[in-house]
Amino acid sequence: MDFDYDLFVIGGGSGGVRAARIAAAEGKAKVALAEESRMGGTCVIRGCVPKKLMVFASEYPGLVDEAAAYGWEASAGAFDWPRFRGHLATELDRLEQVYRRNLERAGVTIFDQRATLADPHTVRLADGTARTAKHILIAAGGRPVRPSMPNAHLGMVSDDIFAMPSLPKSILIVGGGYIACEFACILNGLGVEVTQYYRGAQILRGFDDEARGLIAEMMRAQGIDLHLGTNLVEMAPAEGHPERQPTEFDAAMGMPASDSDAAGHAAPAAPRGAPSGPIWVKATNGSERVFDAVLFATGRAPNTPGLGLEDLGVRLGRNGQVVVDAYSQSSVPSIFAVGDVTDRINLTPVAIREGHAFADTIFGGRKTAVDHDLVPSAVFTQPELGTIGLTEEQAREAHRIEVYCTSFRPMRTAFIDRPERVLFKLIVEADTRRVLGCHIVAPGAGELIQMIGVAVKMGATKEDLDRTVAVHPTISEELVTMRTPVRTA
Ligand code: NDP
Predict the structure, then answer these.
(1) Residue 453 belongs to domain with CATH number
(2) Which ligand 1 atom is the nearest neighbour of the CA of 144?
């Protein structure tokens, strides 16, 4: 049978773009890609990239304070959010064009519209036309979800943050995961009064307990009003609420619409930059407060609804993710999926690896399974958390371990009597001496974990680290100087 294309990719994010480029440029395949939003996907347009630029922006007031404590005459002044946002928009436009050009250069045909599946080899485009392909790759990513509660539409999701017309004076962040903690630190750094409600006993569930504890302590020390074991139970527009006076943010955002979707269903994501405040909220502990804005950072879901996958018999998991094998093949042989839509490890570099491995397997003549073991990652809180491998809690379940851990005030900020502490932790398997996990809480921990991650991935033992001479004076020299385990288990 003749097809229009060898490969049709649905989704122009990290995973889809990589797969399309490699299949076209190296695999000499005839490739098309459809993207309904902006080229680059979540990471480039409304995730990692703009988030990291906001992290940089938010760190300056702290640096200015440090400079002053070191003897400089310095003060930060006001932050010009519209100016930053304009610059950000220009940068994202540039990056989007880079992605587009790279696809075009590789010979990929781009459709700037939504695509859904009509049959295992046919894609239907929003303009009503159809295209056939020997292989179809679903790389549709994920989307933020709000909890299902009345008035949930009043709250923003992470997509909305980058388009806010002005910064709110106060914000409630709901959630305790990556996005909640990163934005709590960013907005706090930018001068917003941040309150965070997390329903569990400690933020960053799934990460090493000691690292979680230190991040929470540092976030509080910076002024974030973090409430654990606390969730939102009710929310409503606060117009006329006696506790609250109108602010500049209200004028810029406009008052929220009425509580028309109070049916109790999960609210759809609001349009970007949607109005969100002022909002009255009631918490599980009975407290009632008013915030200029609420941000739901309550998780993300795979973007599968409406794609037509179920009708074709493509097996979906409990969260709606496409279930795939080690080669990213779904239960329908011509349909593959990579990235967040598969809900494996939802990180950009993993999606890129999955997209590349798919293209190598199908078009490069090299059957390549993605290695999801020992993936380093970072949470861009302040300080950052870098992590690879097993947490102490996970390692205890299956191994005899030694735990090496140190936490101290680094020279740079101890000198000016600031409370910052860092943490370096190694989980070592007692018998083989292999490093099973490494957890770092420190400024630049994302950079550090990338480096130590190479050694851990290579199977480094504790003795390999011990043989490495320290670089002095650095904070990370502790990774090679810890001599005695603090615990064995
Ligand atoms: P996470 O799954 O990390 O966190 C979701 C948080 O919301 C959890 O604390 C969860 O609580 C809480 N939650 C879920 N449902 C509710 C509810 N109904 N009411 C109250 N709280 C709720 O999701 P994120 O949105 O933060 O991030 C999504 C993914 O994106 C991450 O898992 C990560 O893979 C990726 N990401 C990676 C980044 C990085 O690499 N630096 C940065 C940002 C995102 P509980 O713990 O109790 O379930």
Answers:
(1) 3.30.390.30
(2) 25
